[in-house]
């Protein structure tokens, strides 16, 4: 378990509050809201808590790869894996919502052989991904969310 610095603790708390507000806004506008953020498109990822069993929804920047949705477990540059990724490692079945359309997905880490090409795609959306990687001691995991049960 990584011990967070005070700065990372504050950033994590802020991201939770902003994420909740952003999710509420997107849901209230039924897909007509602010689906762009920091140069990219947002996905709402609903996942199951690994300890609580509760459902959580997290807004994330995403890329499309055919029918798949790609996300980065960057955690805003906080040096700990994001809770959503820890949850998906325990229960990989989740739901995504993009512009009001929802579907079931299964999550998997992108293999090392594909990582460089996918990382480059994230870099093209926002150079801040390199900054996130530079501030953390872990390698930021890239995650593929494949349609499931469609």
UniProtKB/TrEMBL annotation:
It catalyses: oxidized coenzyme F420-(gamma-L-Glu)(n) + a quinol + H(+) = reduced coenzyme F420-(gamma-L-Glu)(n) + a quinone. Transmembrane segments: none annotated. InterPro entries: F420H2_quin_Rdtase (IPR004378), Split_barrel_FMN-bd (IPR012349). Gene3D superfamilies: Electron Transport, Fmn-binding Protein, Chain A. It comes from the Bacteria. Pfam families: F420H2_quin_red (PF04075). Belongs to the F420H(2)-dependent quinone reductase family. PANTHER family: DEAZAFLAVIN-DEPENDENT NITROREDUCTASE, F420H(2)-DEPENDENT QUINONE REDUCTASE RV1261C. This is Nitroreductase family deazaflavin-dependent oxidoreductase. The lineage of its organism: Bacteria, Bacillati, Actinomycetota, Actinomycetes, Pseudonocardiales.
